[in-house]
């Protein structure tokens, strides 16, 4: 079947009449080439099908939640079994207690767990717990780091008041000295320091987890009496079966976890150390669907696979095969390629491509060949990917490199224009 986007185009036109902006949030394709589909109809394993029936090997994994493969059989069985018993009830199911026990048993820094729906829920809950624990106001965050879409942290400035961020203080992400300077400037009034395990923001190269930064963040929080919050909404269980900083001997006070724990079911979590328990017990946070049993049953099944299978080793192996294959292709075709961060969360940029003409053209060419890569957002490996999948991906990317090499780099087709305006918009979103 040849690639087409007619149905997708029709749906985008219909959506524009009834949905503000045609689509909103991080899954909007407004910043992507027109070849990228906005609407999908089904998924299985490592594959995704759009509304036109085009099949893709998917490296976005629903922007992270697909860890084991779409519709993993064990997780699906747990979902179906719980649906027959009930989902959103007047009170939680007993599966909530089981899930909390299992999550606490797996994470060396966790003594308790609370559940919600999205990463934003979990990070926002962490700010409230930290302030309840310390009685202080300031929340220190890395500049440009994404912690969600609540007023205190959303990258979009529209509708946000200065008062919404009146006690948010910024430091240079992953920079121990910048963090130390921010702590010194606001000593005595710091409720929490937020950090991600490594730099993974859009339109930027990623970093690797840095033990120096992790240990300095812990040291500064201990001196100041502030709460160390590790935002693992993107990275949880893609770097380690434990916390991302556990290998460094660094124990955060609170950790926000999202995306993966239900393998696509809507659930996230805040876990914490024993000294945070009383503060977590004192706050009022809730949601009509936060206690739904089906996502919790999915999470129990997902955590079992995380504990008992070689899923992580497969993620790493497939990620390394992809990285090595793309690097060799880039050299063979005469392009510089930057692949940064952990191999389980690929980020790919072309060198000497300030307007991202090359990256946009290449990823769009890959999409038309059945491989969903992203030009500016970090991607995600899932455990359903096989060596045969990677071989198919590399065939498509090799063809995309061939096509790109044949272009005049300054005269790329109009459907792939310079993205300066898009970059300016993205800069606003990450400011």
UniProtKB/TrEMBL annotation:
Position of the signal peptide: none
Keyword flag Transferase: yes
Cofactor: pyridoxal 5'-phosphate
Pfam family, one: Aminotran_3
GO molecular function: transaminase activity
SUPFAM superfamilies, per database record: PLP-dependent transferases
Protein keywords: Aminotransferase, Pyridoxal phosphate, Transferase
InterPro entries the UniProt entry points to: Aminotrans_3 (IPR005814), Aminotrans_3_PPA_site (IPR049704), PyrdxlP-dep_Trfase (IPR015424), PyrdxlP-dep_Trfase_major (IPR015421), PyrdxlP-dep_Trfase_small (IPR015422)
Family: Belongs to the class-III pyridoxal-phosphate-dependent aminotransferase family.
This protein's name: Aminotransferase class III-fold pyridoxal phosphate-dependent enzyme
Species in which this protein is naturally found: Ancylobacter crimeensis
């Amino acid at each position: 079947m040849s690639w087409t986007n007619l149905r997708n185009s029709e749906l985008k036109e219909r959506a524009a009449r009834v949905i503000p902006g045609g689509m909103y949030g991080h899954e909007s394709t407004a910043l992507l080439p027109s070849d990228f589909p906005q609407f999908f109809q089904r998924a299985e394993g490592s594959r995704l099908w759009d509304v036109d029936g085009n099949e893709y090997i998917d490296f976005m994994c629903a922007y992270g939640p697909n860890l084991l493969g779409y519709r993993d059989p064990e997780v699906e069985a747990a979902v179906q079994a719980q649906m027959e018993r009930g989902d959103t009830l007047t009170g939680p199911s007993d599966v909530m207690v089981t899930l909390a026990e299992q999550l606490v048993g797996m994470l060396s820094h966790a003594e308790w767990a609370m559940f919600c729906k999205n990463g934003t829920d979990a990070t926002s809950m962490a700010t409230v717990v930290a302030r309840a624990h310390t009685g202080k106001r300031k929340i220190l965050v890395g500049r440009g780091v994404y912690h969600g879409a609540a007023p205190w942290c959303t990258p979009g400035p529209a509708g946000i008041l200065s008062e919404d961020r009146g006690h948010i203080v910024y430091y240079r992400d992953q920079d121990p000295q910048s963090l130390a300077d921010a702590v010194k400037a606001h000593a005595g009034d710091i409720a929490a320091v937020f950090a991600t395990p490594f730099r993974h923001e859009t339109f930027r190269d990623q970093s690797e987890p840095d033990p120096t930064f992790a240990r300095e963040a812990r040291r500064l929080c201990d001196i100041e009496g502030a709460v160390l919050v590790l935002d693992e909404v993107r990275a949880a269980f893609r770097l380690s079966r434990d916390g991302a900083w556990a290998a460094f001997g660094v124990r955060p006070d609170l950790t926000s976890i999202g995306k993966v724990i239900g393998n696509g079911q809507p659930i996230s979590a805040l876990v914490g150390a024993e000294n945070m328990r009383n503060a977590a017990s004192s706050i009022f946070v809730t949601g009509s669907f936060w206690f739904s049993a089906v996502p919790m049953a999915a999470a129990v099944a997902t955590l079992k696979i995380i504990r008992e299978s070689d899923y992580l080793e497969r993620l790493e192996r497939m990620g390394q095969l992809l990285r090595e294959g793309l690097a060799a292709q880039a050299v063979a075709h005469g392009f510089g390629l930057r692949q940064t961060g952990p191999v389980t969360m690929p980020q790919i940029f072309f060198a000497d491509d300030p307007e991202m003409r090359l990256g946009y053209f290449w990823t769009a060419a890959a999409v038309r060949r059945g491989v969903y890569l992203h030009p500016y957002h970090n991607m995600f490996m899932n455990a359903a990917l096989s060596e045969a999948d990677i071989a198919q991906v590399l065939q498509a990317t090799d063809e995309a490199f061939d096509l790109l090499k044949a272009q005049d780099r300054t005269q790329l087709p109009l459907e792939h224009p310079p993205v300066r305006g898009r970059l300016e918009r993205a800069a606003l979103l990450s400011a």
